[in-house]
Amino acid sequence: MTLLAPIAAEHVRGMVTGGREALAALTERVGAGDSNMLFEVFQLNDHELLSAMHAATGAGRRLDVLADARVVAGGAQQQIDAAIRASGGAGRTYGETHLTHAGEEYFQHGKTYHFATAAGPEAWMTNLAPIPDTANRTEISLVLRGDAAAAAQLVTRDAVAGGLRRGAASIDAAAGVGVLVNDPLRDRRVLSEGIFELLRDQPSARDLLVITKGLEDAASTSAIIDAHRVGRDVRVFVRDIAAADAARLADAQVPTWVVSGGLKPRVNGIFAGERGVVGTAFLWRNMVGAAAEATSRDVGVLLDGATGASVRGAALNAATRGQVHTPLADAVARGQLPEHI
Question: Residue 128's closest CA among 34, 239, 40?
């Protein structure tokens, strides 16, 4: 187990809620053109953000990018490559030369945007995928500074450089300041450790709030059921859920709601009291499962205290405000599970 510590409150500079709002704020930040940029992306195909990136690199700012090998940055790869070349930066696609033992490809699902400013490093930790549909999604983005931002930036820098051993060391160090990373190429599952610590290793007096885009993982479902059975106050809000996991939660009478309508819920947060993890990983086997199943690189942060309470409130608001909530037992009985696994 890796030594995990929550982010210090002074290292959280701010929080942006909402997909449309986060994309606008990120575009404005890039457009300021006042710092070199280091991004890791799953999808990126927003015209205004791409234009801001080109303007910044045209003004002499460097751009380095870690992108997913299969999604190819949402079809905008040529524009991103041109911006990287113009800036003298580096680009790397994650997992392109590696396969799992089962012959599956790894993929890069992390989303971080780093800026090297005169005041020090700045890291945007988010689930934001800058694509046209982002305006229709709920999001939570945290802007970090100080040691947490520096550690997160080093993790992404090492991933772009491609060094497996050094990259593993920077992931381990980042956990000590609240930045959690799953990286199957480097045999690290620190984000999963943080998630399961909250699911399993908490006293019964601490409630369990699970908000996730997707649930398709037997171990996660078992941990949620066990928490319910030992008397923890459990609530689960999920957008997509596999039939087997839905049936188990319904049979165990775990308070669970399928969220639909309104903005698409894209927040992934697990909270035990004020302590919580938010990040890019859904409760899917390839994201939080055992090492043999893990194929996804994901990032997140560990929070506690007043910062954790604030982010928990924002996550719960994103999962409930303006949404339709169908009790899971009703959805199972009707055969109306939104399974997009």
Answer: 40
At position 53, the amino acid (one-letter code) is M
One-letter amino acid for residue 168 of the chain: A
Strand order from edge to edge, sheet including 36-41? 12-17, 140-144, 120-125, 112-117, 36-41, 63-68, 91-94
CATH code at position 288: 3.30.870.10
- Chain-wide mean pLDDT for the chain? 91
The answer to whether residues 119 and 214 belong to one domain is no
* DSSP bridge pairs for 180: 300
User: 327 and 230: one domain?
Assistant: yes
Residue in the structure block whose two tokens are 């969220």:
259
Higher pLDDT among residues 205 and 128, named by residue: 128
- Residue 122, both tokens: 């700045």
Residues 6+ apart with CB under 8 A from 231: 204
- Name the E strands within 199-268: 208-216, 234-241, 256-260
Q: What's the whole-number mean pLDDT along residues 107-132?
A: 93
pLDDT at 231: 94
Residue 214 lies in a domain: yes
- Using pLDDT thresholds of 50, 70 and 90, give the confidence band for residue 106: confident
Residues 55 and 127 in one domain: yes
Q: How far apart are the first and last CA of the chain?
A: 29
Q: How many domains does the chain have?
A: 2
What is the span of the domain harbouring residue 282? 192-332
Angle at 87 between CA 78 and CA 92, to 5 degrees: 55
pLDDT tier for residue 310 given thresholds of 50, 70 and 90:
very high
What is the identity of the amino acid at 100?
Answer: T
- In this structure, are 24 and 172 located in the same domain? yes
Token pair of 94 as six digits: 């994650």
187 assigned to some structural domain: no
Q: With respect to residue 184, please indicate whether it lies within any of the assigned structural domains.
A: no
